[in-house]
Every structure is written in C-alpha cells, then in structure tokens.
C-alpha cells in the first residue's frame, strides 16, 4: 500500500504514509493528507466481510456521539477496497491517550454507553460463540481442548442472556481519552453475542474479576444490563473469554503466525496466560 494506491481508491491527497504497527490481526499506517489525519488498516481478504461489518458498527456509534475511527468511504461508496490480497479501510484518526487498567471507571462507562447505542444495530454475524471444540489447533497443548470444552459447556448451561452487537475486544488501549471525551477504536473484531462477553473481555484485560470492581460498577451505572444478569453470568463469560484467548493463541502457535509480535515466544506467553486463567 502506497500513497498512489490510497489516492486511487479514496478522494484523498496523501502527503505522508508511515507504518503504525501494534495490531496482531492487521497491518496499519498513519496517513497525513490535505483532508486531515487518517489510519489505514489492511486485513487478509478472507476477513473483508467481518471488517466491513465492524466498520458499519463503528460508523453507527460514531454518529451517536462516541468517536470510533469511523471509515471514510471509497470513491465507489464502499467501506473497504481490495488491494494486493487484502481488504483495506481508511479510518478517521481518533486523538487522545490510550487508557490503562487504572481508568476502570471510564472504560466501564464508555462500554456501557456503546452497548446502549448499538441496541438497534443489525448485521449478519457468525453464530456465537465462535469456537469449534474439534479444531485441530486445540491439540498444540493437552490442556487446551478440555479447557475450551469446559468453558463452552458452562456457557450452554446458562439461561437466556441479553444479546447485541459487540466490539468483542475492548482492551484498555482501544479506548482514547481526549479532553474529557472517550472514544473506542479497533472495530475489526466486532461480532454479535451476549453483551456480557464484552464486559468479560474488559474485565480480563484489567486483571480479572477480583480486580475489576470499579469497571463493573461503572458499567452497571449506565443501565446497559441488569445487575442480576451480571452477577449470575459474568464469571461464566469471563471463562469463555479466556477460552477464546486460548483458541486464538493456539491457532497462532499452530500456524506460526507472527503478525504483530516479535517472536513465537509472544504467542506462547499469551497461551500461558490463558492456561493460568483456565486451569489455575
């Protein structure tokens, strides 16, 4: 991807294009243009539909008042363009500092507001949960398949949960705080499922159930979910979220995927974290 490629697909005059890095599932660049600053994201062509679905949700939330890095449409009116085996999107740059685990109140409040904004969003999604117990990569270590199966079994034993559109990976660094306003970027993993899955993801990233009291309380204050549903089912969804993490890193280990990391040791570390959470 170069400046000429961008200008061919988007109505932009690109002055500078620089690698951004940081993504484990995509390649990214910052684009300085006469029209403003943007982020360019490229994913494998097989992920074009999930990316477009996520961008549509980002656009919905952005219009409702939370900055998301909404996509700029191509010259032909699409959310993405195909280039060299990839699906490419140009996203509006969202200013602000990435949040950390110390910002639990902001994370919980913003996530709850996003869920309320997405209540009426409609899209086609892969059925939840998106785990296959018979997947070959779950054999890379002996504990993985039983742990994933156990997490899925516990989830299936729950009663009906409140479902909706999900960000699906609300890590602290996906939130951007700028002059009192918090945005939420990185929508390429968006899905549909129990809203508790997003809350469980946020809880996982700030240190687990025992450490996330402030985040959970802030989320509940928004009214996105009833307290009784959170109390009854969040621990089960937290385990399911770790099962997804185990599946993700097992696949990367199995295929030798180094996207966004320096070495296989980083994938092994992610798998070890999941092992501690699911078997410890």
Summarize the structure.
The chain is of the alpha+beta class and about 280 residues long.
Q: Can you characterise this structure?
A:
There is one protein chain. This protein is α+β, with helices and mostly antiparallel strands and 280 residues long. The protein has two domains: 3-94, Phosphorylase Kinase, domain 1, CATH 3.30.200.20; 98-279, Aminoglycoside phosphotransferase (APH), C-terminal lobe (Aminoglycoside 3'-phosphotransferase, Chain: A, domain 2). It is built from eight helices and eleven strands. Strands 1, 2, 3, 4, 5 and 6 form a six-stranded antiparallel sheet that branches. β5 (81-83) and β6 form a beta hairpin. α4 packs antiparallel against α7 (227-255) and α5 packs across α7. The model has no long low-confidence stretch (mean pLDDT 95).
Instruction: Please provide the count of β strands.
Output: 11
Sequence stretches where pLDDT stays below 50 over 5 or more residues:
none
Which descriptor suits the 3D outline? globular
Helix/strand/pairing class, anyone? Answer: alpha+beta
What is the beta-strand fraction?
15-25%
Main beta-sheet strand count, sense and barrel state: 6 strands, antiparallel
Fold-level CATH name of the largest domain? Aminoglycoside 3'-phosphotransferase, Chain: A, domain 2
Q: Distance N terminus to C terminus?
A: 44 Å
The CATH class name of the largest domain reads Alpha Beta
Mind telling me the C-alpha Rg? 19 Å
Q: Note the quaternary state here.
A: single chain
What number is the mean pLDDT?
A: 95
* CATH fourth-tier homologous superfamily of the largest domain: Aminoglycoside phosphotransferase (APH), C-terminal lobe
